[in-house]
Amino acid sequence: xxxxxxxxxxxxxxxxxxxxxxxxxxxxxxxxxxxxxxxxxxxxxxxxxxxxxxxxxxxxxxxxxxxxxxxxxxxxxxxxxxxxxxxxxxxxxxxxxxxxxxxxxxxxxxxxxxxxxxxxxxxxxxxxxxxxxxxxxxxxxxxxxxxxxxxxxxxxxxxxxxxxxxxxxxxxxxxxxxxxxxxxxxxxxxxxxxxxxxxxxxxxxxxxxxxxxxxxxxxxxxxxxxxxxxxxxxxxxxxxxxxxxxxxxxxxxxxxxxxxxxxxxxxxxxxxxxxxxxxxxxxxxxxxxxxxxxxxxxxxxxxxxxxxxxxxxxxxxxxxxxxxxxxxxxxxxxxxxxx
Length: 339
Hints:
Elements: H1 2-14, H2 19-47, E1 58-65, H3 74-83, E2 87-95, H4 101-119, E3 132-136, E4 139-141, H5 143-149, E5 154-156, E6 161-163, H6 175-180, H7 204-229, H8 234-241, E7 245-247, H9 248-253, E8 259-260, H10 263-273, E9 282-284, H11 285-289, H12 300-338
Parallel strand pairs: 1-2, 1-9, 2-3, 3-5, 4-6, 5-8
Antiparallel strand pairs: 6-7
Helix pairs in contact: 1-2, 1-12, 2-12, 3-4, 4-5, 5-7
């Protein structure tokens, strides 16, 4: 109330219509403005810790598909999370079917990086084992389902679509990907097997055979990866191998996912299996690599106190100013009528 009493005194001084009254009023308003500026700066400083969120234990969220920022390379976001020892768990949020050859190269890289992450020795005992799980928000078809199968478990929304192992036709250079999965590929001549010739061309049949062999190799890699990662029966594996896809409940029935629910359930299952994750915040790595601010509170009590002080001072100041303007307007009317 000290500030409000000071404002009242300044208002009384101003009513004298002399220079000293205006000077005192200006001084009070200036001090109040400086105080509000300092409090606002302190609240902003303690409520945003810049890159400090990377130095505090947390659960990393990596968006793959339409829910991700189109300006963000999801593979780079995943690598950032896997390289950060403070990311005690990783949740992949999948919402896009990936079956074209060029995209499968990123899928294979992500799978390789996840496998490497799980083989790294821990420094904090059993709690250092980093869980990596998947939450299917929309579509996990083709390569995106292969990626989900590499994680510890899969939770899918009841309306999500899973399965559909197939390769879509696209134009890309398959040599880097095939080399990574152990398939030898030889480009003959001056590249007539890379560029599709016309049907009348003598190399057309050789090109088609070559392309079909590439897709067949990629398809076998997808099947082998899912078979190694998921304990599917022969009949269920045959369904998926034929390109069939299923919604959440049926996908659970055929063993394509481990549970149906939302992102909260996904995190709860992770925390239940790894109690040391309890209470950790979820950090969206898509926002981090895109330069957006991430919420972090190094001193929660101080930040809350400063925010409360800001709200209290602002509301009190506005109330006092409204009352001051109203009274001054009425007094000015009386003064004009007196003249």
